[in-house]
Design a protein that fits this description.
588 residues, alpha/beta, seven-stranded parallel beta sheet, 21 helices, globular
Length: 588
């Protein structure tokens, strides 16, 4: 294992060890052996990209390969975070510099700026880059593809740089904006795809105990709302719905005046209390959609806990200080509007609540990345989710690697409602444009929460029938100890599920005959079973790589019956039970 530079062990970046982790050492050796002008490192959140990048910077400065350092970060807070980490590494960086400001104090070796700042005045940054042999660190480089102007600004400003080190810890998107200084090559389908020089994924980091495993707790429930036309609509969150209705049901669930969000916050606080029995300083984070909701959630948390929550709003001048103070103390909850979604280090965060309508793969990975930073072995992260298709799919796909794909539209091929997709597409074709939904008049009328299931390591765990908030069945999962090894977590989840199943009265678990009228004609019930089956098949695909169609065919061969789209309820249940048996055997 490679040791850090002379100044580094005593000043190691917060949360890092005094020597490099195995992946950091391997990436550094690869970098120094090849000495490339451009290098893209893709490493999962919490793995230690900052330590790796600053070690490269220290090596290049020490070898006189470069004289100056420019760090480009997504936010003002991350500029400060980078400057603090660089100072501990013996590299003084000015986080207050803005493009065009001219000279900086001779005490500094480098500056930290934002992508937005570079986009405003790329010429000034280019002049600075040309004056010295400069290393540019592009943190979360996918932001250079957020807009054409940002990408062009980054390219213009740093084209003359002696070295460029690009970092990202979250999945790239599929779009048409190429990211500057990233290499693209045709993928298997011929579409240009980004090529990383070094990749260290979540699955590898989990195996190395560098990051925490995540237990996802999904909540569904009945929602009612009034549309702009004055129609009152009722639907269950988690049921197969059109895209617009799913969005409206989610917005209803997140309404502070309803019952769903207070119930989930109370459940999350119970989970946090359990975690704090083993990890006394563990903290929780609620990710809110807007400032009004954030303040309302904080008020609810105060009623639940008796303790004020830290509220972080992105446009507040004191936002960075609030995050730093929360990181250093042992208070229970922080509520934020996107501010803590990416790159911000609060290692004691252990419980999260997804209370935002933002649901892209990129944002999901960024947000979950706030909870996976490991400190000691056995720590488990717990994230509470609404039962909506996209979020559950992202949770099941947490270990999947993604690259930046140019010119290919994002599709719903992996959606867990795959069996319903044709019907959903037809229904959506006649609906109003969903992209404009959040701007439409909308009135939430009421909501209630139910525990749906737990998702861990791609497998689902839960109890039969409706599980009410506050019930013993829910506590089977909320009361899981906060310190467990991954194998212990799997065993405990299986054991609690099986114990509850054995103790249920026989009358409650008797199944209806396969050909009963209800099984054949209740399309809602069949849709729910198909959704569950498709979710399990998707999870199996991510764990084994086996194509969905092959898995469905194997289930039909073992359990009998027609294709899932026309199978009856009994046949679907048998396949669900069988694939769960496969998951248990593979985990064991």
């Amino acid at each position: 294992m490679t040791s850090l530079g002379p100044a580094w062990p005593e000043r190691a970046a917060w949360g890092t060890a005094p020597s490099l982790r195995a992946w950091q050492s391997a990436a550094l050796q690869d970098y120094l052996a090849r000495n490339p002008r451009d290098f893209l490192a893709v490493a999962t959140p919490g793995a230690g990209k900052t330590t790796f990048a600053l070690t490269v910077a220290a090596e290049l400065i020490g070898r006189r390969v470069v004289d100056r350092l420019v760090i480009v970060a997504p936010t003002e807070h991350l500029k400060l975070q980078w400057a603090e980490a660089a100072a501990r590494a013996g590299i003084p960086v000015d986080p207050t510099y803005s493009a065009g400001a001219g000279k900086i104090s001779s005490d500094y070796v480098g500056v930290a700026v934002t992508y937005a700042g570079v986009g405003v005045n790329p010429l000034a940054m280019r002049i600075r880059t040309e004056r010295f042999r400069t290393l540019v660190i592009l943190d979360e480089v996918h932001h250079a593809g957020d807009s054409l102007s940002w990408g062009e600004g980054v390219r213009e400003a740093f084209e003359p740089a002696a070295r460029r080190l690009a970092l990202t810890g979250t999945p790239f998107r599929s779009d048409v904006n190429p990211i500057p200084f990233v290499t693209y090559a045709p993928g298997e389908d011929g579409v240009p795809t980004s090529v990383a020089d070094y990749t260290y994924g979540y699955a590898e980091a989990l195996a190395d105990h560098v990051v925490r495993p995540v237990l996802f707790l999904a909540y569904s429930g009945q929602m009612s709302w009034r549309t702009r036309a004055g129609d009152e609509v009722a639907a269950s969150l988690g049921e197969p719905l059109t895209k617009d209705m799913t969005s409206q049901a989610l917005r209803t669930a997140l309404d502070p005046q309803g019952s769903w969000i207070p119930s989930v916050l109370q459940a999350a606080d119970k989970r946090l209390s359990e975690v704090r029995r083993h990890v006394p300083d563990a903290g929780g984070l609620v990710i809110a959609t807007d400032q009004d909701s954030a303040r309302a959630y904080a008020k609810t948390l105060k009623q639940i806990t008796g303790e004020s929550a830290t509220v972080v709003l992105s446009d507040e001048k004191a936002a960075s200080k609030k995050i730093s103070a929360f990181s250093a103390d042992d208070s229970r909850w922080m509520v934020a509007v996107r501010m803590v979604s990416e790159g911000v280090d609060v290692p004691r965060l252990a419980v999260g609540v997804w209370a935002t309508t933002t649901s892209t793969p990129l944002f999901f990975a960024q947000a979950v990345g706030r909870f996976v930073r490991a400190r000691t072995r056995g720590e488990i992260a717990s994230v509470f989710l609404p039962s909506v298709p996209g979020l559950l799919t992202y949770a099941a796909e947490l270990e999947v690697q993604r690259d930046h794909v140019l010119g290919r539209k994002v599709t719903d091929e992996g959606d867990i409602f795959a069996a319903e997709q044709d019907l959903m597409n037809q229904a959506n074709a006649g609906e109003a444009a969903s992209d404009e939904l959040d701007a439409l008049p909308f009135e939430a009328l009421g909501s209630e929460a139910r525990f749906d299931h737990a998702l861990y390591d791609g497998a689902q765990f839960g109890h039969e029938g409706e599980v009410h908030v506050g019930s013993e069945e829910e506590m089977d999962f909320l009361g899981i100890p906060g310190l467990l090894e991954p194998d212990q977590m799997r065993s405990l989840l299986r054991q609690r599920q099986e114990d509850r199943r054995r103790t249920k009265p026989r009358a409650e678990v008797e199944e209806r005959p396969a050909d009963s009228l209800a099984d054949v004609t209740t399309h809602e019930h069949l849709a729910v079973l198909r959704r569950e089956l498709n979710g399990l098949v998707a999870s199996w695909n991510h764990r084994t790589g086996q194509a969905h169609g092959i898995t469905h065919a194997a289930l039909r061969k073992e359990c009998g019956g027609p294709a899932a789209a026309v199978a009856n309820a009994e046949q679907l249940r048998k396949r669900i039970d069988r694939i769960r048996e496969w998951s248990v055997r593979k985990s064991s």
